[in-house]
Amino acid sequence: MVRESKESITLKEYFCTKLGDLKALICAELDTIRALRQSDKEALETAKSAMEERLNKMNEFRDAIKDQNANFVTKPEFEARIDSVCKDIVKFKEFIAAINAKADQKQVDRLTIVSIISIVIALVSVIINHL
Prior knowledge:
By secondary structure, the protein is mainly alpha-helical. Helices cover about 90% and strands about 0% of the residues.
């Protein structure tokens, strides 16, 4: 027979107490795990929202770059246009040179006429003075 004292408990009571303690510990750990899982879910949702926002901004930036690039002139198109402009500049320079040549010829003609008139006047005055 087992002797029981005031300080002793039965084996069943001991196991029930230990089982209750273990159950309380497991429940506390489960509550902690649930709280951690919930905070992880919240952190994951926050990170997901931040990532979606970042990706949306990147897409907006990419669209802006595409729009900007659509307005740029391509190199072959630029070269074709600049060649055309250079040819027009050469033609313009030739035109200006032709105008300047005509202007110079007009000035020479005027000076020649004025010189001839001056000589005629000088001759007339010499002839009038000697008569």
